[in-house]
Here is the input.
Amino acid sequence: MSLGSSGEQQRPDRQHLDVPPTDRRKIVAACVCLAIPVVALLWVPAYAREDPSIGGVPFFFWYQFVWVFVCSALTWTAYKLVQSARGGKR
Here is the structure.
């Protein structure tokens, strides 16, 4: 089976698929917002320690607890960026 003389697959027409135009910069920013917590929480040596402690709670635990709220904020930001990138219709 041949893909054509240039070897490229043909792209379907976007209007035919009813796909809204997308701002790629905002999608990339949303991906960065979602990647930050993954990197911060998978880099365990950065926070695998006891000091500084807050109220007797070691750094290891309160660092991860703070990320619960930071992750929520970053996920909300990514959601809003994707909405904005797609024209804010959804």
The mean pLDDT is 84. The chain is about 55% helix and 0% strand. Residues 22 and 77 are 17 Å apart (CA to CA).
